[in-house]
Amino acid sequence: MVRSTAEVHLESVEANGKLLQDPLLRQFLSSCIGGVMAFLLSFLLHKRKFDVQLLVNGILGSLVSITGICAVTTTWAAILIGAVGACVTTFGQIALVKMKGGGFYLLGVQTMAAVAIIIWSVVTSFIVLKLIDLTIGLRLTLEEELYGADYCEHNVELPPDVKEYAESVLRRLKEKSEREKKSKGNVPRVELVNSTPDHPTDNSPARDTEDLILENINKSSDEEATDNDDKVRKNANRKKVVEQTQTKV
């Protein structure tokens, strides 16, 4: 039985709703517990008075604490995370109020700390990424770029149209690469000696399939541009001939 597009869309919406149901519930529950915890702390610390700012910050602190892991945690853990986040936010706000700032000296210290963190992050990131690039490689292959990192690295299922498009592109590029290799193999030896060799020789490094694919893409785009220029030139010549004929008549 063939299903309609509306039925398929409805099933997709229901599946996504089930996936989103539990994380949303945990996030909502954690924020509620954070608000209750901030409410109790305000009642105890401010002598039975309620600080609205403290209450709002407690809710925000619990949301910040649970948002990043709401999809992989459990319900009881979400309650605990919301309570701890509200406590950290509450006592952090009280500590900041007691510090009352430190003038330009403290601003200078914070600026130096920010500069040190930036330098350390840049140097460390460069070293780590360079080591990855030299060992296992940093960039995805052309095939992985077409399919997407979610499919290749995280096993996320692709939509059928995206998968078909990637397969068709790879198939066309492979056919172009094979035709290019055959055409280069039929070139006389004299031309290969007098021209720059495209095939790897003993003195030139071997090129992988990705280089050949990218080269074919560039050549095809150049050929299309040349064809368009020829069409424009032919149309201009035709117009000139027609104008000259009309003038003679």
Explain this structure to me?
The protein is an all-alpha fold. Helix content is 80%, strand content 0%. Helix 1 (5-45) packs across helix 2 and helix 1 crosses helix 3. It is elongated. It starts with a helix and ends with a helix.
Features:
mainly alpha; about 250 residues
The Rg value, from CA coordinates, equals 33 Å
What is the succession of H and E elements?
Answer: HHHHHHHHH
Mean pLDDT across all amino acids: 76
Report the major sheet. Answer: none
Percentage of residues in DSSP E strands: under 5%
Query: Treating each run of at least 4 consecutive H or I residues as one helix, how many helices?
Result: 9
Give the uncertain stretches in residue-range form: 187-207
Q: What structural class do helix, strand and pairing data support?
A: mainly alpha
Distance between the termini: 70 Å
The best one-word shape is elongated
Considering DSSP H and I runs of 4 or more, what fraction of the residues is helical?
A: over 70%
Can you count the beta strands?
Answer: 0
Organism: Mytilus edulis (Blue mussel)
Domain Ammonium transporter AmtB-like: 29-93, 101-155
Region (Disordered): 176-249
Pfam family, one: Ammonium_transp
